[in-house]
């Protein structure tokens, strides 16, 4: 896996990342840190990427289990260390799994498998942060 990050050259702290798959992601800093608030902060991108990684796993596992999953949302809130490096110290993941006739035990299993076996991002963040998972099933 590869990526390249370049300073945009604009006044402030805007950066553009180009991923190995050829996609671009813009990032910026907060105004009080020299940024212009034109894009998400780098740590917000890390958090969002982790949510996408685990949601991807949950949907894939549920589909393979024969579940009629229609949507999966993950709402996350994170706490960070007060001192640099300001790593995540706690991340709450709340899954909203939407579908028809979803079996609660299979939803539980999918979330657990994602966290314990498949999601590389949450495995990394779990080295510095307490990860808390909750969920609700919404009938569609």
Describe the protein:
- It is a single chain.
- It contains 3 helices and 6 strands, in the order E-E-E-H-E-E-H-H-E.
- The N and C termini lie far apart (37 Å).
- It is α+β, with helices and mostly antiparallel strands and 140 residues long.
- The protein folds into 2 domains: 31 residues, no CATH class; 98 residues, 2-Layer Sandwich (GMP Synthetase, Chain A, domain 3), CATH 3.30.300.
- The strands form 2 sheets. It has a 3-stranded antiparallel sheet with strand order 1-2-3, with no helix packed on it. It has a 3-stranded mixed sheet with strand order 4-5-6, covered by helices on one side.
Which labels suit this protein?
single chain; 140 residues; alpha+beta; GMP Synthetase, Chain A, domain 3; 2 domains; 3-stranded antiparallel sheet; 3-stranded mixed sheet; 3 helices; 6 strands; elongated; KH_dom-like_a/b; OsmC/Ohr_fam
Produce the secondary structure layout.
Layout: E1 3-7, E2 15-19, E3 24-27, H1 42-64, E4 68-80, E5 88-100, H2 104-118, H3 120-125, E6 130-139
Parallel strand pairs: 5-6
Antiparallel strand pairs: 1-2, 2-3, 4-5
